[in-house]
């Protein structure tokens, strides 16, 4: 009887030891598996702080920001945006850049040339992705478009064929001779465009004369446009942030005086400009967003990411504006109606 009890006790003891050993082996294995899963989970759930600096509010820049956000969202990036608008004030623009840097953002989205310049001056460490910039090299944002070399890269808003096509259209199709241009000479991107246009006219022998009307603020835009009446037979409004923010003032002057006005991008056609060889600002914002995704995921460095040009250049026209200035639209222009962009 005693031997049976001893055997039973030994059996129970051995079973307990085996159970403990089994439990120990079951709990040890998952710990090793859970660590990488937990690390992946933390990586996926990270919220990135994105600083957004924009020189002024107008549809083109706003559309670029919408595209940027869409690219990050579609890539599964959880982002918190600190959006600050300078409203055309360069001193405020500088303060915004400094505030974003001191706020410890993970990346800065600079929407315009002045915004990108201020950001680049404020930090050489935080990645900066720009868009709505005309001449990245001329603005000294990058060492070269092919190899930026620093903490800044992005997308430009100039297609190599846009300006040449516009000038040829003015000359050959609208029979223009004197082209009025309202722009802010204090904006590097605007000055660069005007100088490029003048050089192209001279080099290509296009036979146009540019008549300038400079402004400092959006409040000056209408008066500057009015000063061109009687001096020009056409107008060309480039992607100048100051002027585009008050575009309706130029449109009203041009249309009331039946002056055909070509513009630099599609949103300005929607707002009453006659026509443009251009692209959607949403698209270049989206492309900038794709670049930001690679940087945030550690798949690329700004220094090695080439500056990108916009894609899909096409010609669109505002038929209502053409009717208002009594301009007949020719079939050979192959122009899309601006209303088609809404579809």
UniProtKB/TrEMBL annotation:
Biased composition annotated in UniProt, kind: Basic and acidic residues: 30-46
Cited InterPro entries: ABC_transpt-TYRBP-like, Peripla_BP_I
Record Pfam families: ABC_sub_bind
Entry-linked SUPFAM superfamilies: Periplasmic binding protein-like I
The UniProt record lists the keyword Disulfide bond: no
Keyword Signal recorded: yes
Superkingdom, taxonomy of origin: Bacteria
Keywords for this protein: Signal
Position of the signal peptide: 1-28
Span list, region Disordered: 27-46
Name listed for the protein in its UniProt record: ABC transporter substrate-binding protein
Species this chain originates from: Bacillus norwichensis
């Amino acid at each position: 009887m005693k031997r049976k009890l001893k055997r039973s006790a030994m059996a129970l003891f051995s079973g307990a030891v085996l159970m403990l050993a089994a439990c120990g082996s079951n709990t040890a294995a998952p710990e090793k598996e859970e660590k990488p899963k937990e690390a992946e989970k933390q990586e996926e759930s990270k919220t990135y702080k994105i600083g957004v600096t924009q020189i002024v509010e107008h549809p083109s820049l706003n559309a670029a920001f919408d595209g940027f956000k869409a690219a990050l969202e579609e890539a599964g990036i959880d982002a918190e945006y600190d959006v600050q608008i300078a409203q055309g004030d360069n001193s405020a623009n500088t303060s915004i850049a400094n505030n974003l840097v001191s706020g410890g953002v993970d990346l800065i989205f600079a929407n315009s040339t002045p915004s990108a310049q201020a950001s680049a001056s404020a930090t050489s460490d935080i990645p900066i992705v720009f868009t709505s910039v005309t001449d990245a090299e001329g603005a000294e944002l990058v060492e070269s478009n092919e190899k930026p070399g620093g903490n800044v890269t992005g997308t430009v808003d100039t297609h190599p064929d846009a300006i040449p096509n516009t000038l040829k259209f003015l000359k050959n199709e609208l029979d223009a001779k004197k082209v009025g241009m309202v722009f802010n000479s204090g904006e590097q991107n605007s000055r660069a465009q005007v100088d490029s246009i003048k050089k192209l006219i001279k080099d290509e022998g296009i036979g146009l004369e540019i008549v300038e009307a400079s402004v400092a603020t959006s409040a000056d835009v209408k008066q500057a446009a009015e000063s061109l009446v009687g001096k020009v037979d056409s107008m060309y409004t480039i992607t100048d942030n100051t002027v585009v923010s008050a575009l309706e003032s130029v449109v009203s002057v041009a249309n009331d005086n039946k002056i055909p006005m070509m513009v630099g991008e599609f949103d300005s056609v929607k707002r009453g400009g006659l026509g443009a060889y251009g692209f959607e600002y949403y698209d270049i914002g989206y492309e900038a967003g794709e670049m930001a995704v690679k940087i945030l995921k550690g798949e690329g460095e700004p220094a090695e990411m080439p500056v990108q040009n916009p894609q899909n250049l096409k010609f669109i026209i505002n038929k209502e504006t053409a009717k208002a200035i009594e301009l007949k639209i020719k079939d050979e222009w192959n122009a899309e109606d601006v209303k088609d962009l809404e579809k």
